[in-house]
Write a structure and sequence with these properties.
Blueprint lengths: L7 H19 L3 E4 L4 H14 L8 E5 L5 H14 L3 E5 H8 L15 H12 L3 E3 L3
Parallel strand pairs: 1-2, 1-4, 2-3
Helix pairs in contact: 1-2
Length: 135
């Protein structure tokens, strides 16, 4: 029987699955950053390939800027519920209020830099030792 040669996408998928399993084996409290956007949906799909039929060995974590389309948030919630996976949501707006942060102003103002505060607080709150993300 001859072995099927993996094409490039198969190789990337296999490497990604391997990385997920390595993370699960080497860290005590990892998390998968999950916004409900296309990149994080791909990561969830790869994580499912790595661990199903078992539950994922980490929660899904969304640091919500408050600038997401409602449809993306609805999809995020529905997917986590359908999969039966834990979803942790923390909002940048709450961090801005709690820490008295100043939002950037102007035509291209973004809360992306302020997400760092919320992410670090979430890492501390849940004692996460690894966050998986992709773009």
């Amino acid at each position: 029987m001859s072995e099927r040669k993996l094409d490039y996408l198969d190789q990337l998928e296999a490497e990604s699955i391997h990385i997920f399993r390595e993370v699960a084996g080497q860290f005590e409290k990892p998390a998968l950053l999950f916004s409900g956007g296309k990149d994080s949906i791909v990561l969830v799909h790869l994580a499912l390939k790595a661990f199903r039929p078992c539950k994922l060995p980490f929660p899904l974590v969304h640091i919500d800027t408050g600038h997401n389309f409602q449809e993306a948030l609805d999809y995020r919630d529905a997917l986590a519920e359908r999969l039966g996976e834990k979803l942790i949501v923390r909002k940048v707006e709450d961090t801005i209020k709690a820490k008295g942060l100043t939002e950037p102003k102007g035509k291209f103002a973004s809360r992306n830099a302020l997400q760092t505060y919320t992410l670090l607080d979430t890492i501390a709150e849940f004692e996460l030792d690894c966050c998986i993300g992709g773009a």
